[in-house]
Design a protein that fits this description.
Elements lengths: L11 H11 L7 E5 L2 E5 L4 H17 L4 E5 L2 E4 L8 E3 L3 E5 L11 E3 L5 E5 L4 H14 L4 E6 L4 E9 L2 E9 L4 E3 L5 E3 L6
Amino acid sequence: MTAMAHEPMPTQDDILLEGFLALETPTGFRAELIEGEIAVTPPPDGDHEDYLSLVFEQVMQMSATAMQFSGHKGLVLSHAAGQPADHVIPDATIAPRALRLFRGAPPWMPSDGVAMVVEVTSSKPHKDRVAKRHGYARAGIPLYLLVDRSKATITLFSDPSGDDYVGNNTAPLGKPLPLPAPFSFELETTDFL
C-alpha cells in the first residue's frame, strides 16, 4: 500500500477569501471583507466626496511632513482570531511621501507605514464607527479620522492597542480638531457645514 500526499482541505475562511477576491461588482461599487463579512458599498454621494476633499486639501497644504494621499486604496489588515484577513478600502489612506508606499503596490497592500486612514460615513455608518475602527486598530494604523455626517462630528482615534484605539478626540463639525505628528496642525472643519 502506498501513501499519497494530498493538498490540505480548504477551510471556510479560505473559501470565503477566495470567493471575495473573485467577486465582481458593478462599476463604482466597492466590495470589502470586514470581520468575516462581505460588504458591498455603492458609489459615494457628492457631500461625501466634498468632505473628503476638504480633509485632503488641508493635509496636503498644512502637514508638517509631506504626505501622499490615496483615495480608495485596498488594504489587507490583521484579522480577528478565527477569521480571514480584513480587506478594506478606506475613503483615504495617507502616508509620508518619503516612504512612497503606493508606488508599485498591489491592489491589496499591507498597511505598514500608513500614518492615517480617513472614513466619511455613508448609508451604513456602523461599519465605519465600529468594525473598520477595530480592523484599523488591530493593524496598528496610528491614526483613524472619522467624519460622522449623521452625528455632525469628526473624531480622531489614536494609540491603537489590540482591537481598538485608546485615545479619541471628538469635535463637532465647525470646530477645529488637532492632528498630532506627523501632521501637526489643526484640521479646520468650518467648511464642512
